[in-house]
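Team,

Forwarding the record for the chain on the shared tracking sheet. I've put the sequence and predicted structure together so nobody has to dig through attachments.
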Amino acid sequence: MSRVVVGMSGGVDSAVSALLLKRQGFDVIGVFMNNWEEKDEHGVCASQADWQDVQDVCGQIGIPYYSVNFAREYEERVFAHFLSEYQAGRTPNPDVLCNREIKFKAFLDYALKIGAQSLATGHFVRRDSEGRLLRGLDAGKEQSYFLYMLKQRQLLLSRFPVGEMTKRQVRQLAKEAGLRVADKKDSTGICFIGERRFKAFLQQYLPTQPGDMVSDTGQVLGRHEGLMYYTIGQRRGLGIGGRGDGRSWFVAGKDLNSNRLLVVQGEDHPALFKQTARLQQLTWVAEPPGRENTALNVAVKLRYRQADQAALLVYAGQEGELVFDVPQRAVTPGQSAVLYQGEVCLGGGIVVS
């Protein structure tokens, strides 16, 4: 009997993944990953409640369960990078790095070490027999954006039982099976921040460096609280409403050398749009789909919820440039640009400018 370790989060997606694999006759083991040990500002550690849900659900399904601690690996491989990126004025996506370094590396190694032939998670993605990463069928929950850094070997050792389902079907199956997490709310945001205010969280780790907030004409409009607290395209929280012609102000850039936050007025201001994006750390799930230094037509997502954007990619090694068919708003350094051709997620890179 083939053994599968299921990464149990305490949510309904991983619970149904374990249930489906159990029904298919696999030797299923539920394992809960503890990646963050710090309590929130209310003294609550959310992982404790999730761990209790894992125990209860695994008991209902009838599978053994364990907890494994990757807090040290997470701090070294993910959180340290998260802080350094914010300190450099960029906006990183730690979930992407967590999937590469923790869930499908440290955790996958653990699963194989305890005799499993594969690892399963509750991600809404699919993979084919060749190890290609495919979009999940539920367009509203599809999560390949967060897994674009994985390689074929990792994917061939992984299973995604709910990738062929919709979220509605997942919850319905959980209800029919009587699982206590059937109606549990989905977790949102960055796992280690929880329900805390993002600014308050960052202040615990990085020194605040206030500076001038400057318009595109050079006028000083106010003071910012620290460049790390703002992202390109941001409108809320600037505190300069009513200035200028009355339209909303938006963050258009960061001048790190002079510690100035650059803002413009009007959501359609040209400074908020870019025709190109330069990428670094370009990575491919499989072999690159064309020769280097050649143009490749791709669909791109610059943000998780964004619709596909048509672009031309020219790349060499781990660097590339995207030329968009339509200028893109709020292209943000530090974020991931994920590349697709049809249902296949090819890979992606980190936006640097």
